[in-house]
Design brief:
5 strands; membrane; about 240 residues; binds zinc ion; 2 domains; 3-stranded antiparallel beta sheet; transmembrane
Length: about 240
């Protein structure tokens, strides 16, 4: 089951990556996929993972990277705040999504199954927990975002990398989607503040709940892509 989900997200991630990266080649040392567009005017590029300086020549339409040198004196932060800071959003966000999905399912089942009443009494607690998880994961992702930017400034000397551009764009999209979901959830317009459930009699409440779930689902794809691309910047491939 988890393997299937991973396969689906990997496919979606792959599509986003190719749109962002354009033509690519692999670092001959660590095998990281690098975008040809990041090669500078002198046809040089420093691999962000292993630090080799590559001269990338185009031979009959093939990109041929040749190792010229190694960047030995690269800033190595002792406290790796960014990789640490990714854990809180990635760990908590899926549970917030699960909470919202359970609340929607409970709202649909409520009129059909009167026996659920004792469980549904706890729905407001689940709704509040979902909000707390959302605020924590999206709120802390601001720290993750800025620590990542700082690493790019220092460790990678603000060099252009398709991976970093993708990560900045997706981080901003994640913050917007997360902000939208928090606003909808906190307002009580989608999931009622009193019962914690969606009032299915109100088309507006139902529509807002669907918008919240779509935003949460899209946020899952975005955060999975951010984690995947971040992983390649640590492990190469
Ligand atoms: Zn490399």
């Amino acid at each position: 089951m988890i393997g299937d989900i991973r396969k689906v997200t990997a496919k979606i991630t792959e599509r986003f990556k190719h749109r962002f990266y354009g033509r690519t080649f692999q670092c001959p040392v660590c095998h990281l996929e690098l975008a040809l567009v990041d090669v500078n005017g002198n046809r040089l590029l420093v691999c962000p993972v292993c630090g080799v300086v590559l001269d990338v020549e185009e031979v009959y339409g093939h990109a041929v990277p040749v190792v010229l040198d190694v960047e030995l004196h690269r800033p190595q932060p002792k406290m790796r705040i960014h990789p640490l800071a990714t854990h809180l959003p990635i760990g908590l966000y899926p549970f917030a999504v699960l909470g919202a999905v359970l609340l929607l399912i409970a709202s649909i089942l409520e009129p059909m199954m009167p026996g659920l009443a004792p469980f549904l009494d706890r729905a407001p607690v689940l709704a509040d927990t979902t909000l707390v998880l959302l605020v924590l994961s999206v709120g802390f992702s601001v720290v993750t975002f800025f620590s990542g930017l700082r690493d790019w400034f220092r460790r990678y000397r603000r060099r252009p990398y398709a991976q970093i551009r993708l990560k900045i764009a997706f981080s901003l999209i994640f913050l917007m989607l997360g902000g939208l979901a928090i606003a909808l959830h906190a307002s009580g317009a989608a999931f009622s503040a009193g019962t914690g459930l969606v009032d299915l009699g109100s088309p507006l409440a139902l529509m807002l709940a669907v918008v919240e779930l779509v935003a949460l689902g899209a946020g899952m794809v975005v955060i999975a892509t951010l984690g995947h691309v971040g992983g390649t910047l640590v492990f190469g491939r």
